[in-house]
């Protein structure tokens, strides 16, 4: 992505690389003439190789060690072997079971590249920013931090258990305000709620549950998991209690309590089943292929012809290693 900053090693030389445009990069290294000259010579030695397969393109976009390892495992023959096993299945039931098993990971594969989006929402001044800072500082790798004003959304990308997460601290949401700038921030926060993978609803321990929380809860889509975070749990409890049927995690940024439990709960909600390195995943467009084959069977196509179609498709793929 443009403006993405990477740190690494170039043949033993520490470098920082920044993509400044679609076809432009900046490389920052030690200022000595020898280091600069050697890197420039290697750049001018030949044109960079273009990605040779869908796996290559996907690998260029992964951003954590775990996701890179998962894609490498697929490229090493794991996915090909799973599809070959489906093509050679003895019965139609076994064929369909193997395709459905691959598709069971479909929601996960998008996040091999794109981060899971966790939106922190709540009324003003309930501790959302402090909560985000505590999560970002809890022994996790901070990949990117984009600050904004107190009325803008603040995005912070973190790695949790090897997966990339984007935490969004939104403007405080309340039902009534005469401030046009605040109104714009609230509208933006509501849009973020509609696209979130998970929502954290922040409640001030000293203020309790309010009508603004009731309104906020109605904005969360039925399919989106959410939890209530009782911020400032070191303070005396007052106000209305959180409804009994909601999941509540208590945190105190002052005492550094509850943050580890919260981050683990987030991972468990979004990735309840972590794929192992020997798990076939339907990457490189194979999820669409699996659905198409299953649709053909549902429409009355003979299992033998559909399995032969998969075999023919595999034989044409440059990445279908044996």
Concise summary:
With 322 residues, the protein is α/β, with parallel strands linked by helices.
How would you describe this structure to a colleague?
The chain has 322 residues and is an alpha/beta fold. The chain has eleven helices and ten strands. It has a seven-stranded mixed beta sheet, sandwiched between helices. β6 and β7 form a beta hairpin. α3 packs across α11 and α4 runs antiparallel to α10. The longest helix is centred in the first third of the chain and has 23 residues. The protein is flat, with a radius of gyration of 24 Å. The two termini are 33 Å apart. About 2% of the residues have low confidence.
The helicity comes to 40-55%
Q: How do the strands of the widest beta sheet line up side by side?
A: 5-6-7-4-8-9-10
User: Biggest β-sheet: count, sense, barrel?
Assistant: 7 strands, mixed
Number of helices: 11
Structural class computed from helices and strand pairing: alpha/beta
State the shape.
flat
Q: How far is the N terminus from the C terminus?
A: 33 Å
Q: Count the beta strands.
A: 10
Low-confidence stretches: 139-144
Radius of gyration: 24 Å
* Helix-strand string: EEEHHHHHEHEEEHEHEEHHH
| Averaged pLDDT | 84
| Proportion of residues in extended strands | 15-25%
Secondary structure elements and their pairing?
Blueprint: E1 5-10, E2 13-21, E3 24-28, H1 33-43, H2 54-61, H3 65-87, H4 92-103, H5 106-109, E4 116-121, H6 128-136, E5 141-146, E6 154-160, E7 163-169, H7 180-195, E8 198-204, H8 211-219, E9 226-231, E10 248-250, H9 259-270, H10 286-298, H11 303-315
Parallel strand pairs: 4-7, 4-8, 8-9, 9-10
Antiparallel strand pairs: 1-2, 2-3, 5-6, 6-7
Helix pairs in contact: 3-4, 3-11, 4-10
